[in-house]
Each structure stands twice: as C-alpha cells, then as structure tokens.
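User: For a reading group we're discussing how well predicted structures match intuition. Take Toll/interleukin-1 receptor domain-containing protein. Before you show the prediction, I'll give you the sequence so everyone sees exactly what went in.
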Amino acid sequence: MGDIADFEDWDLIIEDIHNQKCIVIVGPDILEYEGFDSFFGAVSNELKENKYISQSFVEEQLFQIKISNPIRAKAEKNDGIRHIGKAMQRVIEQNQAKLDAIALLLKKLPSELILSLMPEEATFSRILENPVRYYHKNKTSEKEVLPQFSSESPTMYNLLGVLSQPESLVFTYDDLFEYIFSILGDNRLPQALQIALKNAERFIFLGVNFNKWYMHLLLKLLASDKNVLAIDAQIPEASRTFIMSRLSLEMMDCTPIAFLEKLASTYEKSSKKQEEITPQKPVEVKPVIAKNDPVRVFLSYAHVDEEFKKELLINLSPLIKQVKEIEIWEDRQITAGTEWETAIKSQLAQSELLICLVSKNYLNSSYCESEISTAITQQKYVLPILLKSCAWMDFPFIATRQVVPRDNKSIASFKDQDEAYQSVYEEVKRLVTLIKSERAI
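Assistant: Thanks. Here is the predicted 3D structure of Toll/interleukin-1 receptor domain-containing protein, as structure tokens, for the group to look at:
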C-alpha cells in the first residue's frame, strides 16, 4: 500500500498513456457521495421504500427484485429494473458537478480508451465528445464495431451496461451470472477492445471495490499479468491485505479524485516541458478518398508464401488493371533507403482493406500478427485467405473473420486451383463494392 506523496512512477504512467499502453478504469466510487460510503449505498437509500425491491445488498452492489405475482414475474422484474435505473440517475444528478469535474480531468489525458463500471453515459458523452459504447450481456458482440480509437476524442466503453438501456445493466444476482457466462462465453468483448486490452501494459482502477469475488474475476479477465494500480482509500485494512495477497496489484491510499488531479497536473507539466524541447511537427493531412476511387488494399503475408502471393495478384489483375477497383500495396514496394517499419505503418493507416494470406508460416510471424491486430484496432475490413491447412481457428484475430475460400477449405486443397482463386476473386470484388458503398459521398 502506497501514499500519493511517495509515489515515484508518475513519469512511467505518463509514458504509458502517451504510448496507449495504459487503460484507466472508472468505478462508481470514484466520487464521494455525501452521507454514504458508496454509490450503491446512496442508490439503496433512494430505494428503501420502493415496493419492487425486496432487499439491497450494498456490499455486493446488487439488488433483489420482489416478485409478488408469478404470472407477472417478467413485468414486475422489468418495472423493478426501471426503478433501480431511475434511482441511479437521481444519485448521479445529485452529484453532477463532481462527475463533470471527473470527466474534464479524464479529457486532459491523451487516452484513446477509458473503461467504465459506472452506468452513467450522458456526462461522459458530452464532455469526451464521443458516444459511450457499452457491453450488453444478452446480445452478441460479434457484429459490434467500435470507432477507431483516438486520443483527441477518447472512447469510453462501459463494461456493465448503461442507464439508457436498463436491460444491459448488471443489477441482480441473475444479471451477474448472465454477465459472467456471457463475457466468458460466446458473447465476448468486441475484437478491437480485446486487442487494446492485450496490448496495454498498465491498468489504473479508480473507485473500484475489489472486495467482491466477481471483481477478482473481472480483474483476471482484463489485466492478468499486467501492472495494476488500484486507487481507493475506503477499503478497510483487513480487506486490503486479503485482496493484495490474492491479486497482483498495488494499492494507493488516496482518493481517486486526488490521484486523477495529480496525474492530470503531472501530464500537463510534462507536455509543456516536451513542447519546449521538441520542434513542432507539421500536421499530417490524410488524403481524401472519393467514392469511386480504387479501394486501398494492404497485403499481409509471410515471404515464404511468395508464390501464392504472385498467383493471387495474377488472379486479381482484372480488379487492379482493367476496372481499377483496387490498389494493392505490399512490403516489396518499399524503396531502398526507406525506413521499412515507418513505411508499413503509413501504408496500413491509409488502407481500407487488409488481405492476409494465412498459412502456418503466417501464423508463426509476430509481425504479421501485429499487422492484422493493428488493422482490426483501426476498424478496417480484414479478409483472411487460407493458403494451406493450419491451426488458424486457434488465432482469435482470424477465427472471428469469414475466411475464404469458404467452408474452411484452403486453396491448396482444391484440385482445380483456378476454381479456388476465382472464388477468392468474387469475395474480394464483393467486399470492394461494400467498402465503396460505405464511403461518404
């Protein structure tokens, strides 16, 4: 357990934030609620005379909805959920000024992604200037597409739902178990979010009560084997000892708001100092893509699969040379003397579609994995083409995409290779049409 005055890692945290390697998780107890120990204590007080609530479990941050008529069980549960949501909204409105201050402090930090365990969304959407995204325990996230993460307009992702969608929230024990089965089962978090969590090296929990078994599970899911700092001065000493002996985290003995103020102040001083010694770089202007311009394709492959690549380009030549529907870039086009990593990052950023040639060689390449994970994080279309049989289904970045040729057949498995490449051609053509249709006019 540390004290804010003795904390020595401010510079490391600032560096991790700059490099998008640090994720801040905001809990409901990031605020101090006058007269109550916690957010749920204040909400429970709002519901103490409510006919729909039979019991409040403040320590567990859950409620039990009273069902008086089994025939109307669903209707009574829905009404109870709505009453809980309204009580939460009242507590938030009573503390609106404090919440605004928190959101403004978060905006000062150059974070691309902020996670939330607090059901509020309106304040964060207004001040962060970006709609709050959220996980819904009863809906699959396979089709959920997050916006491209940007430090200028941070994405806040609420892991436990939002008030505007009461059915998404985790209010009761039933909700909690549905949530756990969902997040560990088929309805996993969006792919871009999983990648951000994987790439992060540091997590800072502000106002999150770890004195609950399911919060231990969530910590393991989000930040296993990472540098974890928990800020909460309200957890009793005995509980802290128990938590820290079971979980790999460091606790700081200060209020979340005090830590956030110090972090924002340290970052501001660091930025000013950096501006004094660093010449101003010209603003990079991204080229405007007209609706009928060729789709920019980034080709990701292992060099040992060069022959497959050449055959693919021959089969895609009508789209490249005749109708000029696509422009393909590959790393063989890097000119001598060019810094290759910079060139790859630049071309990947400008691309609209990443085509990856999947084989055991590709799966064994860490740089190929980096290219595909970057493309997914940037919300680009990704088309895996299966060259030969390999363990591609064990790679989530690929397994969650539609692989071609379809039916999990590899190109090498076709007796007629022309038939295989023709099926790939049709899939690329269809995807190019889709990408063009989604462009701004």
